[in-house]
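User: Okay, second chain of the day. Same drill as before: sequence in, structure tokens out.
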Amino acid sequence: IEIKVVEGLKKGNESLKQLHQLISIEDVERIMDETQEGIEYQNEIDSMLSGQLTQDDEDAILEELRELTEVELPDVPTHELPTAAAETEKVSPARERRKEMVPA
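Assistant: Same drill. Structure tokens below.
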């Protein structure tokens, strides 16, 4: 078993040496920078899609809410409103004529 482990380590070291010849530290740094830029760009898109507001937007919304709540509304009626049954009892004369039967 120990021989297999040592052989595995040798193969691993050879693979790393080949990888180091293919990729330099500068390449890795460039890839990491590109990845970081991509993450930042995606975070910016996510924040726009999620509807996060800036402080200016939030202040404008609060100001609009304050203006809306300061609007003076009409007084609510205090007398009893007519019911639907009471309205049907009051039929105009024009409606009464329409209800008359007409000979065919």
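The chain has a mean pLDDT of 81.

User: Thanks, on to the next one.
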